[in-house]
Specification:
Helices cover 43% and strands 12% of the residues. The protein is of the alpha/beta class. β3, α5 and β4 form a beta-alpha-beta unit. The structure holds 5'-deoxyadenosine (5AD).
Length: 345
């Protein structure tokens, strides 16, 4: 199996069969080997720098009903909230002071935030903080909407493809949502000129190693600037409440593979990784990740943006604890930098 990892490192490519074989034959020893190679490749391009993004979860209203997600429309146990434009600008202000130079506006698919409202918010942030990157993560939209938001000043867009395989996709989503449309959105975003992020959940219900291989092949062909992956974690108020959560071990392995497949990609150690294990984020960095996205949302609403059970929002996860995060990263030999952290990919 080490030969396959060497081949991946040298060619940044494997066949579907080779991906499946690596995933199915992984071991502790192989993982350690993979992570060492992933760190070497990452250090070559990004050194020991860790980029941070301030995450603003500005609405938890959502018109979709994804079977895994805690803020799905049918969950009547969620306290719904929306931040105002002023709230959002206040978050950016405190974020800027802390040293953030990227703001990520993430929300459910909330019809209240029309193109004109969102464009107004984006252009206000852009004029107040021209040296910052604005990332949107607000789901599937038309080409025209994406275009308008780009022209208003959005630089980047995060839209996980969730799973490439359409049969698997349909086991995770209602029939109104399709894998095809999701992927089409990503191609549109690229065409418009966004720096694009995609990704998937690891260990989502019914996922096979073949599904994961397809995810890797799709990501290779999309060639995005960012890839967000994290373990699936069940949420008590969803149809998947009794499903087993994804593992730390497989998530780390996938991070290592992604780093070797796309050496220059920006790879976050996600909140879900930090949620399933107290040192998940650090292990993610040591497996090849180089981005952390602390929570910049107003503290009183954080508990309402619960995509999954026990989602962390304090400690190193909180933007206001950046100093503590800096120490955690320094302890493993990495340093957080004040920078937009643009992708080299
Ligand atoms: N477990 C892990 N990740 C989840 N997401 C949504 N629900 C869950 C869950 N239960 C992820 C999806 C989405 C991102 C914002 O959060 O991949 O794209």
């Amino acid at each position: 199996m080490k030969e396959l990892i060497q081949k991946l490192k040298e060619t940044q490519n494997l066949s579907k069969e080779e991906w499946i074989s690596l995933i199915e034959n992984r071991s502790v020893e192989l993982s350690d080997y993979l992570f060492a190679q992933a760190r070497e490749v990452r250090h070559q391009y990004y050194g020991k720098e860790i980029y941070v993004r301030g995450l603003i979860e500005f609405t938890n209203y959502c018109k979709n009903d994804c079977f895994y997600c805690g803020i799905r429309k049918s969950n009547a146990n969620t306290t719904r909230y929306r931040l105002t434009k002023e709230d959002i600008l206040t978050c950016c202000k405190s974020g800027y002071t802390l040293g953030f130079r990227t703001f990520v506006l993430q929300g459910g698919e909330d019809g209240y935030f029309t193109d004109s409202r969102l464009c107004d918010i984006v252009s206000s942030i852009k004029s107040s903080y021209p040296d910052c990157a604005i990332t949107l993560s607000v789901g599937e939209k038309s080409y025209e909407s994406y275009q308008a938001l780009f022209e208003a000043g959005a630089d980047r867009y995060l839209l996980r493809h969730e799973t490439f395989d359409s049969v698997h996709y349909q086991k995770l989503h209602p029939s109104s949502l399709t894998a095809e449309n999701r992927q089409q959105c990503l191609w549109h975003l690229k065409e418009i000129g966004y720096q694009v992020g995609t990704g998937f959940m690891v260990g989502s219900p019914y996922q096979t190693s073949e599904n994961l291989a397809d995810d890797l092949l799709f990501i290779k062909s999309l060639n995005p600037q960012m890839i967000g992956i994290g373990p699936f974690i069940s949420h008590r108020d969803t149809p998947f409440k009794d499903q087993t959560s994804g593992s730390l071990e497989l998530t780390l392995f996938m991070l290592g593979l992604l780093r070797l497949m796309l050496p220059k990609v920006l790879l976050p150690a996600t909140t879900a990784l930090g949620t399933i294990s107290p040192n998940g984020r650090e292990l993610g960095i040591l497996a090849g990740a180089n981005v952390i996205m602390p929570n910049l949302s107003p503290i009183n609403i954080r508990k309402n943006y619960l995509l999954y059970d026990n989602k962390i929002s304090t400690g190193d996860e909180a933007a206001e604890s950046l100093n503590s995060l800096k120490r955690s990263m320094a302890d493993i030999g990495y340093q957080i930098v004040v920078s937009r952290g643009d992708s080299l990919n």
